[in-house]
Write a structure and sequence with these properties.
Belongs to the GST superfamily. Zeta family. The protein is of the alpha+beta class and 219 residues long. It contains 9 helices and 4 strands, in the order βαβαββααααααα. The mean pLDDT is 94. The structure holds glutathione (GSH). Glutathione binds next to helix 1, helix 3 and helix 5.
């Protein structure tokens, strides 16, 4: 069985949990702390030398790190419930949207960045919070516009009638923003898509507060 090194608060692991659930792939969760100094965390460096979560253990000589690499692997290995739909143009739009979350938003608000601002740059809490919110709005504004530009159709989800990679990447970002109390009022389409996703079992079972380690601290 696949093993996912995960933490309930990890946005990147959240994406992978949704994809595994949606595709109906059984996996074992290996709950791994985000505290960079714990013994457990040091042992984790043997699994993923970068020390970041998630990593997917497939077999002894295949442990995949980086959520986008894991998502691509899952898409190729389990194509029956695809997360990329439609023609080449639609698939490109889905990938572009997903990258706003994966490449341009999450890395700026990652724990190690926020910790660095706190510990090395002496940035106080209210300024770190302003940083966090700034990058969330910098993503959600354009994401909302991209969703609003769509041609009319029966789109419960981001671009399609079924969940896609775009939804897989949007939902953890919204979930994190909600946890931090970010005002999502300006983003009605994002909120609608989020509600549609969260009505599905695959998304519910991947949510941070339903994970076995949900009582564990983030850091
Ligand atoms: N680009 C990586 C990012 C992984 C990542 O940054 N994971 C976070 C949790 S979401 C982490 O392990 N943070 C620990 C830290 O920042 O020290 C991916 O998509 O997998």
């Amino acid at each position: 069985m696949l093993k996912l090194f995960t933490h309930h608060r990890s946005v990147s692991a959240h994406r992978v949990r949704i994809a595994l659930n949606y595709k109906g792939v059984a996996f074992q969760s290996i709950f791994t702390g985000l505290d960079g100094t714990s013994d457990e965390r040091k042992q984790y460096l043997e699994v993923n030398p970068q020390g970041l979560i998630p990593a997917l253990w497939v077999e002894n000589d295949l442990i995949i790190s980086q959520s986008s690499a894991i998502l691509e692997y899952l898409e190729e290995r389990y194509p029956d419930r695809p997360l990329l739909h439609g023609d080449i143009a639609l698939r490109a739009r889905i990938r572009s949207f997903a990258q706003i979350a994966i490449a341009d938003t999450h890395p700026l608000n990652n724990l190690r960045v926020l910790r660095y601002l706190r510990d090395e740059m002496d940035v106080p809490y209210d300024r770190r919070r302003a940083w966090f919110e700034h990058w969330i709005h910098a993503a959600f504004g354009p994401m909302e516009s991209l969703l609003a530009e769509q041609p009319a159709g029966d789109f419960s989800f981001c671009f399609t009638a079924r969940p896609s990679l775009a939804d897989v990447c949007l939902v953890p970002q919204v979930s994190m923003a909600e946890r931090y109390g970010v005002n999502l009022g300006p983003y009605p389409i994002i909120r609608r898509v989020y509600r549609a996703c969260m009505a599905l079992g695959a998304f519910q079972a991947a949510a941070p507060d339903t994970q076995g380690d949900s009582a564990a601290p983030a850091h």
